Amino acid sequence: MNRARFSRAETRILEQYWKLGTCAVREILDSLPVEERVAYTTVQTLVYRLEQKGALRKVKKIGNAQLFEPAIDRSEFRRGLVRDFLALFGDSPRVLVSSLIETGTLTLKDLKALQNAAASGKSSRSGGAKRHA
């Protein structure tokens, strides 16, 4: 399946839809912090692009306003980003983590916390219950 790619601006709009749920372009524009405000038509264009890419869908029209809702969920979106990002590192989590450590983006404290989280996740799953993050 060919996954759509999203610009930063499109991703920002999609984040607002995940936060607010079903709403109109005007509501999305009004929900943006003042320093991120752009023209109404810019947000409208981004919303229509997201609809074309299958990330949003029209659900109803009230007067002149079209209401849209997310057609993909946040976790589905993030999984795609992680797959794409990991591909940049030859699909090797070790190479990715090594790069994060080399750049100082990931610290030993972070690694320890991840190790503890993985260990507690394994112990809870071994009891028959699955954890959902």
| Domain count | 2
First-last Cα distance: 26 Å
The value of Rg in angstroms is 19 Å
According to CATH, what is the topology of the largest domain? Arc Repressor Mutant, subunit A
What is the typical, i.e. mean, pLDDT? 89
Mind summarizing the main beta sheet?
3 strands, antiparallel
What string gives the helices and strands in order? Answer: HEHHEEHHH
Number of helices: 6
User: What is the strand content?
Assistant: 5-15%
Task: Summarize the structure in words.
By secondary structure, the protein is mainly alpha-helical. It folds into two domains: 8-70, Arc Repressor Mutant, subunit A; 90-133, no CATH class. 57% of the residues lie in helices and 11% in strands. It has six helices and three strands, in the order H-E-H-H-E-E-H-H-H. It has a three-stranded antiparallel beta sheet with strand order 1-3-2. A hairpin with a 2-residue loop joins strand 2 (56-62) and strand 3 (65-70). The longest helix is centred in the C-terminal third of the chain and has 19 residues, at 108-126. The radius of gyration is 19 Å and the shape is elongated.
Give a short overview.
With 133 residues, the protein is mostly helical.
